[in-house]
Design a protein that fits this description.
Blueprint lengths: L3 E5 L6 E6 L3 H20 L2 H17 L1 H12 L3 H22 L6 E2 L4 E9 L2 E5 L5 H14 L3 E5 L6 H13 L6 E3 L4 H10 L3 E7 L2 H12 L4 E5 L5 E4 L5 H13 L11 E5 L3 H13 L19 H8 L8 E4 L13 E4 L5 H4 L6 E7 L2 H8 L7 E5 L3 H10 L4 E4 L18 E2 L12 E9 L3 H6 L6 H4 L1
Parallel strand pairs: 5-6, 5-8, 6-7, 8-9, 10-11, 10-15, 11-14, 13-14, 15-16
Antiparallel strand pairs: 1-2, 3-4, 4-18, 9-17, 12-13
The structure holds nicotinamide-adenine-dinucleotide.
Nicotinamide-adenine-dinucleotide (NAD) binds next to helix 7 and helix 8.
Protein backbone atom coordinates (compact mmCIF):
# COMPACT_ATOMS: atom_id res chain seq x y z
CA UNK A 1 0.00 0.00 0.00
CA UNK A 2 1.25 3.49 -0.86
CA UNK A 3 1.77 5.96 1.99
CA UNK A 4 1.25 9.02 -0.12
CA UNK A 5 0.07 10.00 -3.58
CA UNK A 6 2.31 12.06 -5.86
CA UNK A 7 0.39 14.61 -7.86
CA UNK A 8 2.20 15.31 -11.15
CA UNK A 9 1.49 18.23 -13.49
CA UNK A 10 0.81 16.39 -16.77
CA UNK A 11 1.92 19.37 -18.88
CA UNK A 12 5.35 19.66 -17.24
CA UNK A 13 5.87 16.34 -15.41
CA UNK A 14 6.73 18.38 -12.27
CA UNK A 15 5.64 17.29 -8.82
CA UNK A 16 2.76 19.50 -7.67
CA UNK A 17 2.15 17.98 -4.23
CA UNK A 18 2.17 14.81 -2.19
CA UNK A 19 -0.96 13.75 -0.34
CA UNK A 20 -1.20 11.15 2.44
CA UNK A 21 -3.45 8.18 1.66
CA UNK A 22 -6.39 7.09 3.82
CA UNK A 23 -5.90 3.67 5.42
CA UNK A 24 -8.79 1.21 5.86
CA UNK A 25 -8.76 1.97 9.63
CA UNK A 26 -9.09 5.68 8.84
CA UNK A 27 -11.94 4.89 6.41
CA UNK A 28 -13.72 3.08 9.24
CA UNK A 29 -13.28 6.05 11.60
CA UNK A 30 -14.45 8.46 8.88
CA UNK A 31 -17.62 6.43 8.27
CA UNK A 32 -18.45 6.48 12.01
CA UNK A 33 -17.91 10.24 12.29
CA UNK A 34 -19.94 10.82 9.12
CA UNK A 35 -22.83 8.74 10.48
CA UNK A 36 -22.99 10.92 13.62
CA UNK A 37 -22.84 14.13 11.59
CA UNK A 38 -25.53 12.86 9.20
CA UNK A 39 -28.07 12.29 11.98
CA UNK A 40 -27.83 15.94 13.05
CA UNK A 41 -27.82 17.20 9.45
CA UNK A 42 -30.95 15.25 8.52
CA UNK A 43 -32.73 16.63 11.59
CA UNK A 44 -32.16 20.27 10.57
CA UNK A 45 -35.10 22.16 9.04
CA UNK A 46 -34.88 21.88 5.21
CA UNK A 47 -34.47 25.64 4.82
CA UNK A 48 -31.40 25.61 7.07
CA UNK A 49 -29.77 22.84 5.04
CA UNK A 50 -30.53 24.69 1.82
CA UNK A 51 -28.97 27.89 3.20
CA UNK A 52 -25.73 26.09 4.11
CA UNK A 53 -25.47 24.60 0.60
CA UNK A 54 -26.09 28.00 -0.98
CA UNK A 55 -23.27 29.41 1.14
CA UNK A 56 -21.05 26.52 0.01
CA UNK A 57 -21.86 27.46 -3.62
CA UNK A 58 -20.97 31.07 -2.83
CA UNK A 59 -17.58 30.15 -1.32
CA UNK A 60 -16.82 27.99 -4.38
CA UNK A 61 -17.70 30.96 -6.60
CA UNK A 62 -15.34 33.21 -4.62
CA UNK A 63 -12.57 30.62 -5.08
CA UNK A 64 -13.04 29.96 -8.79
CA UNK A 65 -9.52 31.11 -9.67
CA UNK A 66 -7.55 29.02 -7.13
CA UNK A 67 -9.74 25.99 -7.84
CA UNK A 68 -9.25 26.40 -11.59
CA UNK A 69 -5.53 26.83 -11.08
CA UNK A 70 -5.38 23.56 -9.12
CA UNK A 71 -7.39 21.74 -11.81
CA UNK A 72 -5.03 23.11 -14.43
CA UNK A 73 -1.98 21.88 -12.51
CA UNK A 74 -3.21 18.46 -11.41
CA UNK A 75 -5.26 17.50 -14.51
CA UNK A 76 -3.75 19.67 -17.28
CA UNK A 77 -7.09 21.23 -18.21
CA UNK A 78 -7.00 24.47 -20.18
CA UNK A 79 -7.74 27.45 -17.93
CA UNK A 80 -11.14 28.26 -19.45
CA UNK A 81 -12.30 24.65 -19.03
CA UNK A 82 -11.00 24.59 -15.46
CA UNK A 83 -12.90 27.79 -14.64
CA UNK A 84 -16.05 26.30 -16.16
CA UNK A 85 -15.57 23.24 -13.97
CA UNK A 86 -15.39 25.31 -10.78
CA UNK A 87 -18.53 27.14 -11.98
CA UNK A 88 -20.22 23.80 -12.55
CA UNK A 89 -19.58 22.83 -8.90
CA UNK A 90 -21.16 26.12 -7.81
CA UNK A 91 -24.19 25.50 -10.05
CA UNK A 92 -24.61 21.92 -8.86
CA UNK A 93 -24.63 23.10 -5.23
CA UNK A 94 -27.11 25.89 -6.03
CA UNK A 95 -29.38 23.53 -7.97
CA UNK A 96 -29.29 20.91 -5.20
CA UNK A 97 -29.94 23.61 -2.57
CA UNK A 98 -33.07 24.55 -4.51
CA UNK A 99 -34.30 20.98 -4.18
CA UNK A 100 -34.10 20.63 -0.41
CA UNK A 101 -37.49 22.18 0.38
CA UNK A 102 -38.99 20.57 -2.75
CA UNK A 103 -38.08 17.01 -1.77
CA UNK A 104 -41.70 16.25 -1.06
CA UNK A 105 -43.50 12.97 -0.65
CA UNK A 106 -46.96 12.15 -1.95
CA UNK A 107 -50.41 11.69 -0.44
CA UNK A 108 -52.18 8.68 -1.91
CA UNK A 109 -55.93 8.11 -1.52
CA UNK A 110 -56.74 5.02 0.57
CA UNK A 111 -59.76 3.88 2.59
CA UNK A 112 -59.83 4.43 6.36
CA UNK A 113 -56.98 6.84 6.71
CA UNK A 114 -54.25 8.90 5.24
CA UNK A 115 -51.39 7.46 3.21
CA UNK A 116 -48.26 9.54 2.81
CA UNK A 117 -44.75 8.92 1.56
CA UNK A 118 -41.50 10.38 2.84
CA UNK A 119 -38.14 10.59 1.03
CA UNK A 120 -35.77 9.51 3.78
CA UNK A 121 -32.01 10.07 3.44
CA UNK A 122 -29.91 6.95 3.01
CA UNK A 123 -27.22 7.82 5.59
CA UNK A 124 -23.57 7.81 4.54
CA UNK A 125 -22.89 7.89 0.78
CA UNK A 126 -19.51 7.10 -0.84
CA UNK A 127 -18.67 9.02 -4.00
CA UNK A 128 -15.74 7.51 -5.97
CA UNK A 129 -14.59 9.96 -8.62
CA UNK A 130 -12.31 9.62 -11.67
CA UNK A 131 -9.49 11.91 -12.80
CA UNK A 132 -10.94 13.13 -16.08
CA UNK A 133 -13.30 15.77 -14.63
CA UNK A 134 -12.28 15.72 -10.96
CA UNK A 135 -14.38 18.66 -9.75
CA UNK A 136 -17.67 18.32 -11.64
CA UNK A 137 -18.01 14.56 -11.27
CA UNK A 138 -17.23 14.76 -7.54
CA UNK A 139 -20.01 17.35 -7.22
CA UNK A 140 -22.55 15.36 -9.31
CA UNK A 141 -22.84 12.92 -6.43
CA UNK A 142 -21.90 15.11 -3.50
CA UNK A 143 -24.29 18.04 -4.00
CA UNK A 144 -27.60 16.12 -4.30
CA UNK A 145 -26.56 13.58 -1.65
CA UNK A 146 -25.92 16.35 0.90
CA UNK A 147 -29.09 18.17 -0.13
CA UNK A 148 -31.16 15.02 0.45
CA UNK A 149 -29.84 14.82 4.02
CA UNK A 150 -26.92 12.42 3.67
CA UNK A 151 -23.25 12.56 4.66
CA UNK A 152 -20.70 12.16 1.86
CA UNK A 153 -17.30 10.49 1.83
CA UNK A 154 -15.56 11.42 -1.42
CA UNK A 155 -12.65 9.38 -2.74
CA UNK A 156 -10.95 11.30 -5.55
CA UNK A 157 -8.79 9.55 -8.15
CA UNK A 158 -5.16 8.89 -7.22
CA UNK A 159 -3.84 11.44 -9.73
CA UNK A 160 -6.25 14.31 -8.91
CA UNK A 161 -7.01 14.69 -5.18
CA UNK A 162 -6.19 18.40 -4.82
CA UNK A 163 -9.40 20.13 -5.93
CA UNK A 164 -11.45 17.68 -3.85
CA UNK A 165 -9.42 18.48 -0.73
CA UNK A 166 -9.84 22.19 -1.36
CA UNK A 167 -13.60 21.77 -1.82
CA UNK A 168 -13.78 20.04 1.58
CA UNK A 169 -12.06 23.10 3.12
CA UNK A 170 -14.54 25.43 1.43
CA UNK A 171 -17.43 23.33 2.74
CA UNK A 172 -16.25 23.92 6.31
CA UNK A 173 -15.77 27.65 5.66
CA UNK A 174 -19.35 27.78 4.37
CA UNK A 175 -20.74 26.15 7.52
CA UNK A 176 -21.20 22.57 6.31
CA UNK A 177 -20.97 20.67 9.62
CA UNK A 178 -17.68 18.99 10.45
CA UNK A 179 -17.43 15.34 9.27
CA UNK A 180 -20.51 15.64 7.03
CA UNK A 181 -18.40 15.94 3.88
CA UNK A 182 -14.98 14.29 4.08
CA UNK A 183 -12.44 13.69 1.34
CA UNK A 184 -10.48 10.43 1.61
CA UNK A 185 -7.61 10.31 -0.91
CA UNK A 186 -6.10 6.92 -1.63
CA UNK A 187 -5.75 4.02 -4.00
CA UNK A 188 -8.86 2.50 -5.52
CA UNK A 189 -7.99 -1.05 -4.50
CA UNK A 190 -7.36 -0.02 -0.86
CA UNK A 191 -9.22 3.13 0.20
CA UNK A 192 -11.91 2.69 -2.48
CA UNK A 193 -12.62 -0.93 -1.62
CA UNK A 194 -12.63 -0.21 2.12
CA UNK A 195 -15.39 2.34 1.45
CA UNK A 196 -17.36 0.05 -0.87
CA UNK A 197 -17.21 -2.83 1.62
CA UNK A 198 -17.96 -0.79 4.74
CA UNK A 199 -21.38 -1.81 6.14
CA UNK A 200 -21.91 1.77 7.34
CA UNK A 201 -21.92 3.07 3.74
CA UNK A 202 -25.46 2.95 2.37
CA UNK A 203 -24.80 3.85 -1.26
CA UNK A 204 -21.87 3.98 -3.65
CA UNK A 205 -21.76 6.45 -6.53
CA UNK A 206 -19.00 5.37 -8.88
CA UNK A 207 -17.70 7.02 -12.04
CA UNK A 208 -14.84 5.36 -13.86
CA UNK A 209 -14.01 2.39 -16.00
CA UNK A 210 -16.48 -0.37 -16.79
CA UNK A 211 -14.10 -3.03 -15.42
CA UNK A 212 -13.88 -1.38 -11.98
CA UNK A 213 -17.60 -0.58 -12.04
CA UNK A 214 -18.45 -4.26 -12.45
CA UNK A 215 -16.16 -5.18 -9.58
CA UNK A 216 -17.79 -2.58 -7.33
CA UNK A 217 -21.27 -3.75 -8.38
CA UNK A 218 -20.44 -7.31 -7.31
CA UNK A 219 -19.20 -6.13 -3.90
CA UNK A 220 -22.25 -3.93 -3.41
CA UNK A 221 -24.52 -6.85 -4.35
CA UNK A 222 -23.08 -8.83 -1.43
CA UNK A 223 -24.61 -6.23 0.93
CA UNK A 224 -27.62 -5.20 -1.21
CA UNK A 225 -26.00 -1.79 -1.23
CA UNK A 226 -27.46 0.99 -3.37
CA UNK A 227 -25.31 1.85 -6.36
CA UNK A 228 -25.04 4.27 -9.27
CA UNK A 229 -22.53 3.57 -12.02
CA UNK A 230 -21.35 6.04 -14.66
CA UNK A 231 -18.93 4.09 -16.84
CA UNK A 232 -17.26 4.24 -20.22
CA UNK A 233 -18.52 5.09 -23.67
CA UNK A 234 -17.80 4.79 -27.39
CA UNK A 235 -20.21 7.37 -28.67
CA UNK A 236 -21.09 7.91 -32.33
CA UNK A 237 -21.31 11.21 -34.18
CA UNK A 238 -23.61 10.39 -37.13
CA UNK A 239 -23.47 12.80 -40.08
CA UNK A 240 -26.19 12.33 -42.72
CA UNK A 241 -25.81 13.62 -46.28
CA UNK A 242 -28.58 16.21 -45.78
CA UNK A 243 -26.85 17.80 -42.75
CA UNK A 244 -25.23 21.21 -42.51
CA UNK A 245 -21.83 19.67 -43.27
CA UNK A 246 -19.90 22.86 -42.49
CA UNK A 247 -21.39 23.01 -38.98
CA UNK A 248 -20.97 19.27 -38.43
CA UNK A 249 -17.29 19.42 -39.46
CA UNK A 250 -16.56 22.60 -37.50
CA UNK A 251 -17.93 21.12 -34.27
CA UNK A 252 -16.71 17.53 -34.62
CA UNK A 253 -13.17 18.23 -33.27
CA UNK A 254 -14.50 19.61 -29.97
CA UNK A 255 -16.73 16.55 -29.60
CA UNK A 256 -13.79 14.15 -29.37
CA UNK A 257 -10.87 16.44 -28.45
CA UNK A 258 -12.36 18.25 -25.47
CA UNK A 259 -10.32 17.26 -22.40
CA UNK A 260 -7.89 15.56 -24.83
CA UNK A 261 -10.57 12.95 -25.51
CA UNK A 262 -10.56 11.83 -21.87
CA UNK A 263 -14.28 12.22 -21.77
CA UNK A 264 -16.74 9.38 -21.35
CA UNK A 265 -19.05 11.16 -23.84
CA UNK A 266 -16.35 11.70 -26.50
CA UNK A 267 -17.84 11.23 -29.97
CA UNK A 268 -14.94 9.01 -30.99
CA UNK A 269 -16.72 7.22 -33.86
CA UNK A 270 -17.53 9.62 -36.69
CA UNK A 271 -20.06 7.88 -38.95
CA UNK A 272 -20.49 9.74 -42.24
CA UNK A 273 -22.92 8.94 -45.04
CA UNK A 274 -20.84 7.58 -47.93
CA UNK A 275 -22.17 10.07 -50.50
CA UNK A 276 -20.68 13.03 -48.52
CA UNK A 277 -17.77 11.23 -46.84
CA UNK A 278 -14.99 12.79 -48.94
CA UNK A 279 -16.45 16.29 -48.69
CA UNK A 280 -16.89 15.95 -44.92
CA UNK A 281 -13.30 14.75 -44.43
CA UNK A 282 -12.03 17.73 -46.48
CA UNK A 283 -13.92 20.06 -44.13
CA UNK A 284 -12.84 18.15 -41.02
CA UNK A 285 -9.11 18.29 -41.70
CA UNK A 286 -8.56 22.05 -41.18
CA UNK A 287 -10.91 22.02 -38.20
CA UNK A 288 -8.86 19.29 -36.48
CA UNK A 289 -5.52 20.84 -37.42
CA UNK A 290 -6.49 24.23 -36.03
CA UNK A 291 -7.49 22.77 -32.66
CA UNK A 292 -4.66 24.30 -30.63
CA UNK A 293 -2.80 21.91 -28.34
CA UNK A 294 -0.43 23.35 -25.78
CA UNK A 295 0.22 25.02 -22.43
CA UNK A 296 -3.06 24.83 -20.46
CA UNK A 297 -2.38 28.29 -19.01
CA UNK A 298 -2.31 29.91 -22.48
CA UNK A 299 -5.77 31.36 -23.26
CA UNK A 300 -5.42 30.22 -26.91
CA UNK A 301 -5.09 26.57 -25.88
CA UNK A 302 -8.07 24.31 -26.55
CA UNK A 303 -6.48 20.99 -25.64
CA UNK A 304 -3.96 20.09 -22.95
CA UNK A 305 -1.94 16.94 -22.31
CA UNK A 306 -3.15 13.48 -21.36
CA UNK A 307 -3.27 12.77 -17.63
CA UNK A 308 -0.22 10.46 -17.43
CA UNK A 309 2.51 8.60 -19.31
CA UNK A 310 0.52 5.37 -18.82
CA UNK A 311 -2.55 6.91 -20.42
CA UNK A 312 -0.46 8.09 -23.37
CA UNK A 313 0.91 4.58 -23.86
CA UNK A 314 -2.63 3.23 -23.81
CA UNK A 315 -3.70 5.73 -26.47
CA UNK A 316 -0.62 4.98 -28.60
CA UNK A 317 -1.49 1.29 -28.57
CA UNK A 318 -4.55 2.13 -30.70
CA UNK A 319 -2.54 4.03 -33.30
CA UNK A 320 0.36 1.96 -34.63
CA UNK A 321 2.96 3.94 -36.57
CA UNK A 322 1.61 2.60 -39.87
CA UNK A 323 -2.07 3.17 -39.00
CA UNK A 324 -3.97 4.75 -41.90
CA UNK A 325 -4.46 8.12 -40.19
CA UNK A 326 -6.64 10.41 -42.28
CA UNK A 327 -5.78 13.45 -40.16
CA UNK A 328 -3.01 14.13 -37.66
CA UNK A 329 -2.76 17.41 -35.78
CA UNK A 330 0.19 18.86 -33.89
CA UNK A 331 1.17 18.57 -30.23
CA UNK A 332 4.13 19.95 -28.26
CA UNK A 333 7.24 17.77 -27.97
CA UNK A 334 9.42 17.42 -24.87
CA UNK A 335 8.16 17.33 -21.29
CA UNK A 336 4.48 16.57 -20.75
CA UNK A 337 2.15 13.76 -21.74
CA UNK A 338 1.20 15.15 -25.17
CA UNK A 339 -0.61 13.38 -27.95
CA UNK A 340 -1.74 14.96 -31.24
CA UNK A 341 -5.37 15.04 -32.39
CA UNK A 342 -5.80 12.07 -34.70
CA UNK A 343 -8.56 10.80 -36.99
CA UNK A 344 -8.20 7.24 -38.24
CA UNK A 345 -10.10 5.78 -41.16
CA UNK A 346 -11.54 2.45 -40.25
CA UNK A 347 -14.19 -0.22 -40.25
CA UNK A 348 -16.87 -0.77 -37.58
CA UNK A 349 -15.17 -3.84 -36.11
CA UNK A 350 -11.65 -2.33 -35.76
CA UNK A 351 -10.29 -2.35 -32.19
CA UNK A 352 -10.03 1.46 -32.27
CA UNK A 353 -13.67 1.65 -33.36
CA UNK A 354 -14.93 -0.68 -30.63
CA UNK A 355 -12.88 -0.02 -27.48
CA UNK A 356 -12.86 3.18 -25.47
CA UNK A 357 -9.54 4.90 -26.20
CA UNK A 358 -9.94 7.83 -23.79
CA UNK A 359 -7.58 10.00 -25.81
CA UNK A 360 -7.71 12.45 -28.76
CA UNK A 361 -8.35 9.78 -31.38
CA UNK A 362 -11.48 9.27 -33.45
CA UNK A 363 -12.28 6.76 -36.17
CA UNK A 364 -14.16 7.86 -39.31
CA UNK A 365 -16.45 5.22 -40.81
CA UNK A 366 -18.66 5.57 -43.90
CA UNK A 367 -22.24 4.21 -43.93
CA UNK A 368 -24.78 3.70 -46.73
CA UNK A 369 -28.17 4.56 -45.25
CA UNK A 370 -30.09 5.25 -42.05
CA UNK A 371 -30.50 1.57 -41.16
CA UNK A 372 -26.78 0.94 -41.48
CA UNK A 373 -25.94 4.07 -39.46
CA UNK A 374 -28.12 2.83 -36.59
CA UNK A 375 -26.68 -0.68 -36.82
CA UNK A 376 -23.08 0.59 -36.63
CA UNK A 377 -23.96 3.08 -33.86
CA UNK A 378 -25.39 0.25 -31.77
CA UNK A 379 -22.58 -2.25 -32.53
CA UNK A 380 -20.86 -1.56 -29.20
CA UNK A 381 -21.27 -2.73 -25.62
CA UNK A 382 -21.47 0.89 -24.54
CA UNK A 383 -24.45 3.24 -24.73
CA UNK A 384 -23.62 6.56 -23.12
CA UNK A 385 -23.98 9.41 -25.62
CA UNK A 386 -24.18 10.28 -29.28
CA UNK A 387 -24.87 13.03 -31.78
CA UNK A 388 -26.62 13.09 -35.12
CA UNK A 389 -26.64 15.70 -37.85
CA UNK A 390 -29.53 15.97 -40.28
CA UNK A 391 -32.04 18.55 -41.52
CA UNK A 392 -34.80 15.93 -41.64
CA UNK A 393 -36.74 16.24 -38.39
CA UNK A 394 -38.42 12.84 -38.82
CA UNK A 395 -35.04 11.18 -39.21
CA UNK A 396 -33.70 13.10 -36.20
CA UNK A 397 -36.46 11.67 -34.03
CA UNK A 398 -36.30 8.13 -35.54
CA UNK A 399 -32.53 7.85 -35.11
CA UNK A 400 -32.58 9.39 -31.62
CA UNK A 401 -35.07 6.72 -30.58
CA UNK A 402 -33.19 3.90 -32.34
CA UNK A 403 -29.72 4.56 -30.93
CA UNK A 404 -29.34 2.73 -27.61
CA UNK A 405 -27.70 5.47 -25.55
CA UNK A 406 -28.69 7.57 -22.56
CA UNK A 407 -27.85 11.03 -23.92
CA UNK A 408 -28.33 12.11 -27.51
CA UNK A 409 -27.85 15.43 -29.17
CA UNK A 410 -29.28 16.56 -32.53
CA UNK A 411 -27.30 19.06 -34.65
CA UNK A 412 -25.10 19.74 -31.60
CA UNK A 413 -22.89 17.89 -29.15
CA UNK A 414 -24.17 19.03 -25.81
CA UNK A 415 -25.27 16.29 -23.48
CA UNK A 416 -24.34 17.00 -19.87
CA UNK A 417 -26.34 19.69 -18.11
CA UNK A 418 -26.75 19.62 -14.36
CA UNK A 419 -30.51 20.05 -14.68
CA UNK A 420 -31.12 17.18 -17.15
CA UNK A 421 -30.70 13.46 -16.41
CA UNK A 422 -27.43 11.78 -17.37
CA UNK A 423 -26.41 8.14 -17.52
CA UNK A 424 -25.79 5.16 -19.74
CA UNK A 425 -27.48 2.22 -21.42
CA UNK A 426 -25.84 -1.22 -21.55
CA UNK A 427 -22.25 -1.35 -20.20
CA UNK A 428 -22.12 2.44 -19.79
CA UNK A 429 -23.78 2.41 -16.44
CA UNK A 430 -26.61 1.90 -14.03
CA UNK A 431 -29.02 4.56 -12.81
CA UNK A 432 -29.05 8.26 -13.59
CA UNK A 433 -27.40 11.32 -12.10
CA UNK A 434 -28.22 15.04 -12.35
CA UNK A 435 -31.59 16.39 -13.45
CA UNK A 436 -34.82 16.90 -11.53
CA UNK A 437 -34.63 13.48 -9.81
CA UNK A 438 -31.05 13.82 -8.59
CA UNK A 439 -32.00 14.21 -4.91
CA UNK A 440 -34.51 11.35 -4.96
CA UNK A 441 -31.71 8.97 -5.97
CA UNK A 442 -30.20 9.61 -2.52
CA UNK A 443 -33.34 8.68 -0.60
CA UNK A 444 -35.50 5.70 0.25
CA UNK A 445 -39.23 6.08 -0.23
CA UNK A 446 -41.07 5.35 3.00
CA UNK A 447 -44.79 4.68 2.89
CA UNK A 448 -46.84 5.49 6.01
CA UNK A 449 -50.52 4.76 6.58
CA UNK A 450 -52.26 6.67 9.38
CA UNK A 451 -55.61 5.29 10.37
CA UNK A 452 -58.41 7.82 10.76
CA UNK A 453 -60.71 5.26 12.40
CA UNK A 454 -61.60 6.14 15.96
CA UNK A 455 -59.48 4.37 18.56
CA UNK A 456 -62.52 2.64 20.09
CA UNK A 457 -63.36 1.10 16.68
CA UNK A 458 -59.82 -0.13 16.02
CA UNK A 459 -59.58 -1.70 19.48
CA UNK A 460 -62.92 -3.44 19.04
CA UNK A 461 -61.80 -4.76 15.63
CA UNK A 462 -58.49 -6.39 16.43
CA UNK A 463 -57.23 -6.53 12.84
CA UNK A 464 -58.10 -2.88 12.26
CA UNK A 465 -57.83 -3.44 8.51
CA UNK A 466 -60.08 -4.19 5.61
CA UNK A 467 -59.12 -6.68 2.94
CA UNK A 468 -58.13 -3.86 0.62
CA UNK A 469 -55.86 -2.28 3.23
CA UNK A 470 -54.18 -5.49 4.33
CA UNK A 471 -52.73 -6.13 0.90
P1 LIG B 1 -10.91 3.81 -12.82
O1 LIG B 1 -12.10 2.96 -12.92
O2 LIG B 1 -9.58 3.15 -12.75
O3 LIG B 1 -10.95 4.73 -11.49
C1 LIG B 1 -12.03 5.54 -11.14
C2 LIG B 1 -12.04 5.71 -9.64
O4 LIG B 1 -12.27 4.45 -9.03
C3 LIG B 1 -10.73 6.23 -9.04
O5 LIG B 1 -11.04 7.06 -7.94
C4 LIG B 1 -10.06 4.96 -8.56
O6 LIG B 1 -9.15 5.17 -7.49
C5 LIG B 1 -11.26 4.17 -8.09
N1 LIG B 1 -11.05 2.72 -8.05
C6 LIG B 1 -10.23 1.97 -8.85
N2 LIG B 1 -10.32 0.67 -8.49
C7 LIG B 1 -11.21 0.59 -7.47
C8 LIG B 1 -11.73 -0.47 -6.67
N3 LIG B 1 -11.33 -1.74 -6.86
N4 LIG B 1 -12.64 -0.19 -5.71
C9 LIG B 1 -13.05 1.07 -5.51
N5 LIG B 1 -12.59 2.13 -6.21
C10 LIG B 1 -11.68 1.89 -7.18
O7 LIG B 1 -11.11 4.80 -14.01
P2 LIG B 1 -10.27 6.10 -14.41
O8 LIG B 1 -9.02 5.57 -15.01
O9 LIG B 1 -10.14 7.02 -13.25
O10 LIG B 1 -11.26 6.83 -15.47
C11 LIG B 1 -11.29 6.48 -16.78
C12 LIG B 1 -12.52 5.64 -17.09
O11 LIG B 1 -13.69 6.17 -16.44
C13 LIG B 1 -12.89 5.62 -18.54
O12 LIG B 1 -13.27 4.35 -18.94
C14 LIG B 1 -14.11 6.57 -18.65
O13 LIG B 1 -14.97 6.43 -19.69
C15 LIG B 1 -14.78 6.34 -17.37
N6 LIG B 1 -15.57 7.53 -17.02
C16 LIG B 1 -16.92 7.48 -17.12
C17 LIG B 1 -17.69 8.60 -16.84
C18 LIG B 1 -19.19 8.59 -16.93
O14 LIG B 1 -19.80 9.55 -16.50
N7 LIG B 1 -19.82 7.58 -17.46
C19 LIG B 1 -17.06 9.75 -16.43
C20 LIG B 1 -15.69 9.77 -16.34
C21 LIG B 1 -14.96 8.65 -16.63
Amino acid sequence: MLRELSVINPATEELVATVPVTTPAEVDAAVRRAARAQEKWAALPPGDRARVLRRFAQVVEENTEPLADLELREAGHPLDSARWEAGNVRDLLDYAAGGVERLTGTQIPVAGGLNVTFQEPLGVVAVIAPWNFPMPIAAWGTAPALAAGNAVLLKPAETTPLTALRLARHALEAGVPEDLFQVLPGEGAVTGEALVDHPGVAKVVFTGSTAVGRRIAARCAAQTKRLTLELGGKSPNIVFADADLEAAAATAPGSFLDNAGQDCCARSRILVQASVYDRFMELLEPAVKSFTVGDPADPATRMGPLISAAQRERVRSYVPEDAPAAIRGEAPRGKGFWYPPTVLEGAPADRAAVEEIFGPVAVAIPFRDEAEAVRIANATDYGLSGSLWTRDIGRAVRVSRAVAAGNLSVNSHSSVRYWTPFGGFKQSGLGRELGPDALTAFTETKNVFISTESTSKSTSDNTGTSTEESK
